[in-house]
Design brief:
5-stranded mixed beta sheet, 12 helices, 13 strands, 34% helix, binds coenzyme A
């Protein structure tokens, strides 16, 4: 028995924020952003709170359910990945269960940032293969724009990230020719603070922040902090490692790869991996130019777009891979 993607969908907020729009808010420019990251525009919900992370996830989930042609009540478990939850606790999974008006099924939250969707999909795969669940709703959703420093001080991070959500229905199938072939998940916690946000959290005195009005929190801990060069160097090593590991575990040859969908961290990272692995342009899907880095949402959004553009067909060998904060990284190899 295998776990197959029965349905997929994505949703991005309507508001397009171009690099030129950012030039009005901070000292940056289109050339710098495009040269370093490939990003031309991204979507922002903004700070009015109308579309929370779980609402974005809900909109993507509705499309995935429709695409799977199942009754939503056939879903027997939810896995929700995000680093930008509506609430500090509880996580987004239960909020999604409520919006979808599902029965009292379980809802698990995954906090693995850019690798969140890979961790969530791998976990769902294990549940399906164990026989515990039949149809798992796996969602990656992010509302980054609420928490980015949109001034010059935050430009090294804030130009990169965008909002959006993607969802899949992973279900049981007896067709052995399709489905997830192998998964891997990795971490290296000694680099946890090379890409992180400290607040709210117990390490950097958020209680002081709440109770003491004179307390001056460290800027780097309130907004996301990223050691960009360091992250870049690790990403370009870990991506290929994880991808090749999945091929080896599955006993498949990379020659048969139809499409690599890398987490959309940075177009330069994707191009580096493509060159390193000797892949053709048509074997690597990128849409970071339009959406920026949407963290846990980037892989399902990209997969959903690649399928809807007819670039992936049933039976194609697809590699999904991610690297990000933690550090965490991993890969999933599947026959769509
Ligand atoms: N616009 C204009 N200038 C900017 C800027 C912006 N948005 N952000 C930073 N700069 C400036 C810096 O202040 C620095 O100026 P200085 O030389 O006068 O000090 C200069 O540009 C170079 O900064 P640096 O951080 O060294 O640039 P970089 O070439 O490493 O590119 C990243 C920065 C973030 C694009 C790059 O490191 C990267 O993509 N890293 C990986 C990030 C990633 O993928 N994160 C997601 C993880 S999944």
């Amino acid at each position: 028995m295998k776990a197959v993607i029965k349905g997929i969908g994505h949703y991005v907020p309507e508001r397009v924020v171009t690099n030129q729009d950012l030039e009005k808010l901070m000292d940056t420019n289109d050339a710098w952003i495009q040269e370093r990251t490939g990003i031309e525009e991204r979507r922002h919900v903004g700070r009015n709170g109308s579309e929370t992370t779980s609402i974005l996830g809900f909109k993507a989930a509705e499309k995935a359910i429709e695409n799977a042609k199942i009754d939503k009540n056939e879903i027997d478990f939810i896995i929700f990945a995000t680093l930008s939850p509506d609430l500090y606790f509880p996580g987004g999974g239960v909020l999604l269960q409520n919006y979808l008006e599902l029965d009292t099924i379980g809802a698990l939250d995954v906090r693995n940032q850019c690798s969140g969707f890979i961790y969530a999909l791998s976990t769902a795969n294990a549940f399906i293969k164990s026989g515990m669940y039949k149809n798992i709703l796996v969602v990656g959703a992010e509302n980054h724009s609420f928490g980015l420093d949109m001034t010059t001080r935050g430009r090294g991070v804030s130009v990169i990230f965008g909002d959006g959500a993607g969802a899949v229905i992973l279900g049981r199938s007896d067709d052995e020719s399709r489905g997830i072939l192998s998964c891997n998940m990795h971490s290296e916690g000694k680099y946890a603070e090379e890409l992180m946000m400290g607040f709210p959290g117990t390490k950097y005195g958020w209680v002081d922040l709440m109770l003491n009005e004179d307390f001056e929190p460290d800027y780097d801990k309130i907004y996301p902090y990223m050691n960009g060069n360091f992250v870049f160097k690790h990403a370009v090593t870990r991506f290929p490692e994880a991808i090749l590991e999945a091929f080896e575990d599955a006993g498949e040859s990379i020659e048969n790869l139809k499409m690599l969908i890398p987490h959309q961290a940075n177009l330069r990272i994707s191009q580096f991996i493509q060159r390193q692995m000797g892949l053709r342009d048509d074997q690597v899907f990128n849409n970071i130019m339009k959406y920026g880095n949407t963290t846990a949402a980037s892989i399902p959004i990209a997969l959903s777009e690649a399928i809807s553009q007819g670039k992936i067909e049933q039976g194609d060998l697809i590699s999904l891979a991610a690297f990000g904060s933690g550090f965490t990284w991993g890969s999933v190899l599947l026959r769509y």
